User: Fold these one by one.
Assistant:
Number 1:
Amino acid sequence: MTTSSSIILNAKELYKSFGGLKAVNNAHIQVKKGSITGLIGPNGAGKTTLFNLLSSFIRPDQGEVIFDGEPIHQLSPHQIALQGCVRTFQVARVLSRLTVLENMLLATQKQTGEDLIKVWLQQAQIKKEEQENREKALSILESVGLIDKCYDYGGALSGGQRKLLEMARTLMTRPKLILLDEPAAGVNPTLIGQICEHITNWNRQGISFLIIEHNMDVIMSLCDHIWVLAEGTNLADGTPQEIQHNAIVLEAYLGD
Ligand SMILES: Nc1ncnc2c1ncn2[C@@H]1O[C@H](COP(=O)(O)OP(=O)(O)O)[C@@H](O)[C@H]1O
Ligand SMILES: [Mg+2]
């Protein structure tokens, strides 16, 4: 049985319109703690809009989002990240004119250095935090194979490496749940394989995932459970096996 404490993310009756277009039209989704959950659907189904609602990049017209037992739909993306829910973007948001290491350090949250009084009082503490963040960033870059690039500019990375860097950056904030918007899109097959391995490893360390992806091999091999969205609303959900054999889902894709 699914108890509420085994659910890390629970979104109910979400609505979002852009002008007359109902991009998300009464959608719901649940992510079990410790799972790798998939979100699929034809182009324009509202998947990215749903992610934007789940991570508060936009506010719902109606509905609620519960993360780890707390409502989060009134919070800012930064506050949600502090609670342990972080995301990546369909087009990776990597700053081209910062180095790879600097891009990683951008994610570090609420440093003592942000508070001016503490800046005067706690120089040593700030130095220590900066050093710890730097070591953590280097260790994560090492684990994803980007350590050789740490002083290269973000702009010098390939599309796939940017996706990897954006994913690596989410780990700087000790996430409980990572939302990935098309992690394999535009990525070469070798790097896709590596990205899948990293996701599996991070999941084994206790991080839950919700992944939007068009690459069905990636979705079917990674996910425990899959939600299908079409025209802003739920079409089906189930195990990879169930979804692969669901006639309604197949029809929605063939009509794409
Ligand atoms: N900011 C926006 N303003 C207007 N329309 C939008 C906006 N964001 C998304 N849409 C529209 O909402 C629908 C769903 O888009 P999206 O969530 O990006 O779908 P998906 O990620 O499933 O391809 C599309 O018709 C898209 O054009
Ligand atoms: Mg999208």
Number 2:
Amino acid sequence: MKEILKKRHSERKYTTEKVSKENIDYILECMLLSPSGKNKNPWEFILVNDLKLIKTLADSKKAGAKFLKDTQHVIVVVGDESASDTWIEDASITLMVGHLAATTLELGSCWIQTRNREAENEDSETYVKRVLSIPNRLRVLGMLSIGHPVQVTEKEKSVNKGKVFLNHYGKAFYG
Ligand SMILES: Cc1cc2nc3c(=O)[nH]c(=O)nc-3n(C[C@H](O)[C@H](O)[C@H](O)COP(=O)(O)O)c2cc1C
């Protein structure tokens, strides 16, 4: 697990090679296995592989999604806030699971925030819902881009052990 977490980077540049159906299935099934508050599973996923639609999603926010225009696959994560008050946590877990599943397959992926973000003339959620025919009652948490990375990031990750306390906040766990 630690090795996968160390290996995972946000990869935003992909080749034009499609990800196999088998690998897309693997990632989606991993996401569907995610835990959720009270086991409500208040999420659903839209796999977008229509390149025209993906290019449109690249404009779903003012910044931070433009790289999608050269992406082959995007999984959009929606949540039903009327089904669970933990929908944000639940949907976030699925995105992270998808991110890690992609890493285990040596695929590149990147999380794109949609909730609380703005497109040019409307909020990002409204934009994405309109483009993908998502019912208005659902929320759009974010998206996961997936592809074969042009170049695998080799950056070494470090951990800040000063963020861990023992029993009382401020008492360092790691001396
Ligand atoms: C909640 C969340 C929202 C993010 N939103 C975006 C985004 O909209 N666009 C983007 O390019 N990257 C986004 N990222 C990726 C982060 O920028 C990235 O994870 C962070 O810089 C650390 O880099 P790393 O993932 O390579 O370790 C997001 C990540 C998280 C966890």
